[in-house]
Amino acid sequence: MIFHINVLTVLVMAALGGLSSLLANQSIAVFHDGLRPLLPQYLNKAMDRRSLFATSFALSFGLVIGFGLPTSITGKIIIVHTILLACDIIGTAFNDTKRGMILSAAVGCVYGILLLFGMQAIMDLFAKMPINFTSNLSSVGNLIIISFCVFPAIAVAYQKGVKTAAVVLVLTMLIKHVTSLYGKFTVNGVKVALNADGMALLFGICAMLVVAARVKSDKTGEATKVFSLFEDNIARIRKNVVLLAISGGVVALATTLLLISEGPASLTLTAEGNYTEAAMVALGRMLGFIPLVMTTAIMSGVYSPAGTKAVHVPALLLINFGIVGLVGSFFIGALIMVIEILLLNVIAKGMDKSPGLKDLGDNTRTAMSKVLDLALLVGGMIAANAIAPTMGYILVIGLYFLNQNSKKPIPTMAVGPVGAICTGILVNILHVIGLFPVAK
Fold first, then answer.
1. What is the 3-class SS of the chain, one letter each residue?
2. Nearest by Cα to 137 from 281, 313, 268, 328
3. Which residues are paired to 163 by β-bridges?
4. Does the model's pTM come out above 0.70?
5. CA–CA separation, 380 and 138 (whole Å)
6. CB crowding 217-238: b at 16 or more within 10 Å, else e
7. Over pLDDT 90: what percentage of the chain?
8. What is the pLDDT of residue 227?
9. What distance separates the 2 farthest-apart alpha carbons in the chain?
10. What's the CA gap between 356 and 58, in Å, rounded?
11. pLDDT above 90 (res 409)
């Protein structure tokens, strides 16, 4: 794995698991956006604890096993879903009494530590197999770096149609090409090298925001009236601002320590050492999640332990700043969470005046999901083929279509990583029984 196991990383993972589980246990914050709107039913006694746990388990367990673990293994950094979704399950598994709160926090701490050592143990096990395929797993995420700058154009297509999106796409590709040709220059003896993918993504995000901001509401004020009905929920979130601030700080600190990553795209870039580009990708994902997290928080009175994911952006930029970066990451993450919570009303009014920005959130998440689905699928095929020429392609393609017809399919973006790992394990089994000889 990319991270190092030492006293600090063990403590941070324990704190992340324990605090996230405690927040879920007390219905203060949960990571799964689909679980958040259901919590008021439990708080209002319309749902019992057993039903809440069953719902949380059903929503999150498949994502942890089918998406979080395979993506973390192939990317060599723990994707945040692997720990925070599991903590949702752990938190809701215990009653929200004082004893239940202590037990959930303790189990969450243990889970965080076990995940840290477990991920390293899995990689060590793979490395000891007769055919070491771990180096090929990095190929799974290679296409994400190249293709992720396309998602703003897709989001624009959902919002304004194909013609406008085509213009954004062409300009995005042009900026990428021009930057690759002329992006290296010297200013006053200082060498400057612009990243072509990063510049293309930056332009795409700006274009996406401009298009969304031009959509005005004909009925301003209605959303503000609706959100004003949930003032008690906002007050409930603000009452827990200290715990949420600590949570934001711990999430940011874990990001700076390279323990966790907020998504598959930034994970790949972080693993490659492209921290600035990873921060830009995290910024793009944050824009997509602001409306969803804020709206569900206001309507439920329950927040997210990672907020709108904004805490990851400065945390990525502070990776190479030693102890100053670690301390700064924690305090900046905590401050961002406080600011987000204080701005809940303001953001509600902003979405009322510019409904295009609210629609942008939905469109951005859909566009990113489409790009990641395809990039990880093709990346998984490339990695699997590198492990087992021609057979790897067949296995991943077959797995994709089997998954499409499964009664309980795993997320599409997990098919590529799962397929690559399965190919590596399969060739080792075939090698042991003499059906996959390795040229010396």
1. CCCCCCHHHHHHHHHHHHHHHHHHHCCCECCCCCCHHHHHHHHCCCCCHHHHHHHHHHHHHHHHHHHHHHHHHHHCCEEHHHHHHHHHHHHHHCCCCHHHHHHHHHHHHHHHHHHHHHHHHHHHHHHCCCCCCHHHHHHHHHHHHHHHHHHHHHHHHHHHCHHHHHHHHHHHHHHHHHHHHHCEEEECCEEEECCHHHHHHHHHHHHHHHHHHCCCCCCCCHHHHHHHCCHHHHHHHHHCHHHHHHHHHHHHHHHHCCCEECCHHHHHHHHCCCHHHHHHHHHHHHHHHHHHHHHHHHHHCCECCCCCCCCHHHHHHCCCCHHHHHHHHHHHHHHHHHHHHHCHHHHHHHHHHCHHHHHHHHHHHHHHHHHHHHHHHHHHHHHHHHHCCCHHHHHHHHHHHHHHCCCCCCCHHHHHHHHHHHHHHHHHHHHHCCCCCCCC
2. 268
3. none
4. yes
5. 9
6. eeeeeebeeebeebeebbebbe
7. 50
8. 57
9. 72
10. 33
11. no
Give me the amino acid identity at 34: G
84, 19 in Cβ contact below 8 A? no
Dump pLDDT digits (tens) for 101-148: 999 999 999 999 999 999 989 888 888 889 888 888 878 888 887 888
Give 104's strand partners.
none
Residue with tokens 């995290």, as numbered in its chain? 282
Q: Provide the pLDDT for residue 93.
A: 95
